[in-house]
Structure formats: C-alpha cells, structure tokens
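LAB NOTEBOOK - FOLDING QUEUE
OPERATOR: T.R.
BATCH SIZE: 2
PURPOSE: Compare the predicted structure-token outputs for two unrelated chains run back to back under identical settings.
PRIORITY: normal
REVIEWER: second-year student, initials M.K.

ITEM 1
FIELD SEQUENCE / FIELD STRUCTURE:
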Amino acid sequence: MESVFARHKLSNFAAIPSNLANRKDQYKKKLQKWGLRKRIEGPEYDAILALESQHQQENPNVTTRYLFGNREVIPANLARYKMRVSRLRRSSDDTNEPVGKCF
C-alpha cells in the first residue's frame, strides 16, 4: 500500500500551517465579535468572591455553586485566584516604595 506522503509532494503539505493560522485568527475574531471569552477575568472573580463572602456570612454551612456564562466556575480556579490576589496584596503591603518612577 502506497503511503500518503509518497503520493503527494512536500510542497502540498507546506501550505497547511498558514491555512491553520488563518483559521485560528478567524476563530478568535468571531469569538470576540460574539462576545465570548475563554476565561473569567479578574473583575468577574472579584465579584464572585464578594458574593461568596456574603453567602458565607448568611449561611456558613452551605456550599454555593457559581455560574458564569452558562458554565460552572471551578472551585479550584476560584481558590487559585484568591491565593494569587492575597499574595499580591501582601507583597504590595510589605514594600513601602512609591509607585512609579522616581528621577
């Protein structure tokens, strides 16, 4: 049986990456046009964390699931964001350097 690569010239396969790149760009533009995003941004996580603290104060024994764009927010992602933000806040509190450039 003759292989696919033997039947086709290498130049036919050289055009594939540019076609895939064009499709990827088109895909990204359509998603942006439709207002769809791949991930939750920081302000949305902040709003979810505010809701979470409010729910914890009202009902400490109840676990709440959060939805964003018809998808459930993964608790591990929420916890990772919370850790990252707390680490950044601690490091900015520790340094008493002025923000910006000093000449």
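ITEM 2
FIELD SEQUENCE / FIELD STRUCTURE:
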Amino acid sequence: MGFQSVSIFLCLSLSASAAMADAFQFSRILPVGGHYEQCLKVDAGHSLGWRFGASQSLAFNVHSHPDDEIVYHVRNETGSDEGSFQSPRSGVYCVMWENNSQQPSDLEGILTPAR
C-alpha cells in the first residue's frame, strides 16, 4: 500500500524583536500523510500568533529544537484554530500541520510574530 508524503519545510529568519513584525500568510494543499512546517525566530518574552483553517482535521503543533531535542509548546488536532504562544527564551519556533486523515486537505492561515 503506497501513500504520498510531501514534506515542505520553509525556515524564515524573521525576528519578532525587529521593527518589522509582518504577518506571514500561507495557502497549501496537504496530501494524505503530508505536512507543512514554518519556522520563525522569536525573542524571549515575545509572541507568535496564528490563525488557520483546513478542510480536514489536522495535527497542529508549535515546537522548538533546543539541544537537538523536540519540545512541544502547543499540540492539538483541529480543523481550525486561532491563538498565540509566548516564547520562554529566544530561538527558532516551528509551527507544523500534519494531515493524518484519509483525504487531502486545504490549509490557509496567517502567522504573526509580535512584540
């Protein structure tokens, strides 16, 4: 039994402490077994906001990789969500969606690094 797995990894070097706190909009189609990950640099005490909607329920998380480990800060299974995460320390934080459903899924949203 075969399945299509697509891994899209984009890593931006956006700093939430910079004068520019631009939002990043995205729109993707996630195949069955596919995922989308967006990583952003966030300074300690600053927040990373998100708002998204999908046509299927997706595994969603915010994680980081301190000391080559995976630390999950937010984790749930949902078709839509809006929220924010405050960084406990400066570093790169990744927001990820994974399609574990039996159907491809549209995914649209916005990430907002903020002061």
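REVIEWER COMMENT (ITEM 2): Residues 7-114 form a domain with the Jelly Rolls fold (CATH 2.60.120.1050).
FOLLOW-UP: none requested
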